[in-house]
Amino acid sequence: MRMVDLILKKRGGQVLTAEEIQQFIHGYTEGAIPDYQASALLMAIYFKGMSEQECADLTMAMVQSGETIDLSEIKGVKVDKHSTGGVGDTTTLILGPLVASVGVPVAKMSGRGLGHTGGTIDKLEAIKGFHVELEKEAFIQIVNENKIAVVGQSGNLTPADKKIYALRDVTGTVDSIPLIASSIMSKKIAAGADAICLDVKTGAGAFMKTVEEAQQLAKTMVQIGNHVGRKTMAVISDMSQPLGNAIGNALEVNEAIDTLRGNGPKDLTELCLTLGSHMVYMAGKAETIDSAREKLETAIKDGSAITTFKRFIESQGGDGTVVDDLSKLPQAAYVIEFSAEEDGYISELIANQIGEAAMLLGAGRTKLDDTIDLAAGLVLHKKIGDQVQPGDVLVSIHSNRENVDDVKEKLKASIRISKQKQAAPPLVYKEIL
Ligand code: URA
Ligand code: CA
After folding, report:
1. Distance CA 240, CA 226 (A)
2. Which of 128, 175, 292, 333 is buried most, with the most CB atoms less than 10 Å from its CB?
3. Where is the Pyrimidine nucleoside phosphorylase C-terminal domain (predicted)?
4. What is the pLDDT of residues 260-298, one digit of tens each?
């Protein structure tokens, strides 16, 4: 079929066949189909949507556009977790060692990425000596021995997604649920996941601003996963305010260590236990979700979670003693307090704006070649619903520059205090199985 006929077919609201979708993905990746035709098709998909079968076919066509990672030499069910991204989302750093400590193999491929803080790899590199350059054999051997390893992204995975994502970015077709869902799922499947646990965020700091949109995206991804033989589930969680208290690279490593020891923030701990229980259950390491959760709680209490983290760090060249001496993490030159000027209850902590305040300090990057200040960031002392008095410290600003007036301005605009008592938002809105 000619590309123009494919565009017309979708524009008319008809369903594309697997062959037609493959023809488009293959032709576009190769450069045989020009950007203008690809753009027109993407816009037609944006307006007309895609069926469950089309979404699955698009996902698999993108998986097949490049290399795939074969994790079959790793024993057990490889469960990958994916978060749609948010502010101060420390869950990967915690969940990896946590589920590994009860026997779930974690073979994680991670990127640096753009955002308010660095990606998981940047955070881990706040630990002296830690490196993510592992040969495939070493990676597999470490996972088989220790149950966990993290490698940097390598190989030519899902080139079709890279090319299409860049095109969507400049053609007004990013926020299409079938396109987002197939983009995310293609990357997880190409990276070798047998089962996938999705954390779909909703709220000001998230891609999906409402619970309804988040639910739609989650359902589409779960359908795709199950359709192509990867057990998939999703949790819809709150990102109206940042998760946990720390936003910043070394600060989040510190928070992860606290949480693995059982001293973490309540919301972050709860979300990790929720996601972790599903991962353990999907990996077949517990009979029920409840018993999976008990195992994880025990691992935190008896120290096996933090011991697994330490072993993981050391197996990749890092200084494991950081676990017992957090002052070995990069420290900012200044810690400046931002305090309340009135009394009342915290009613808003607008996640994306707080993330931007962390960016001003250098905690994240806007371009891939930006350098990150690993020590910089914010620690929240109050969350939505907490009562405050004038003078109470709301946020500690960890900075390598002395003047942080711009950061304080940003924080002022992102934190609201109301006279009425406020309830904290729900942490988990829904689970989609
Ligand atoms: N994240 C992705 O990986 N793909 C999208 O399309 C949107 C967000
Ligand atoms: Ca956090």
Report:
1. 29
2. 292
3. 345-418
4. 999 999 999 999 999 999 999 999 999 999 999 999 999
